[in-house]
Write a structure and sequence with these properties.
single chain, Zincin-like, 2 domains, SprT_Zn_ribbon, SprT-like_domain, SprT family protein
Amino acid sequence: MDLTEYVRKVSREDFGWEFRHEAVWNSRLQTTGGRFFPKDRHLDFNPKMYEAVDLETFRKIVRHELCHYHLYDQKRGYQHGDTDFRQLLAKVDGLRYAPRTGKEGARYLYACSNCGQVYPRKRRIDLKKYHCGRCRSPLVLKNQS
């Protein structure tokens, strides 16, 4: 998919305004659908979000970023809390928040070796240093995703 051409198409069809800058994929984005850069007016989009959601949902993410872009061009309130932004986003049916892809949760699952208390964690923990808060027994790593 030619991302810049797709964004231009969405801009023409849904806003009636031209998108004159560049749209690029940014694989470093984790939980956000995209970003707008006022300095050079380009848009970044998360390729993982494109793969995780359907095309209509991705189009709503593009609309969200285009709201920032067009309002900034018109010297109107382009930030999330601004009334102009919220009104335009509602008018074009853009997403207010990026959808969850299911990868933001716990990656490590620890459990107590004695009582079975479960401890989901995003980060790895030192099993020599930490123990169960309920019975003080050692923890074990159950699974890692």
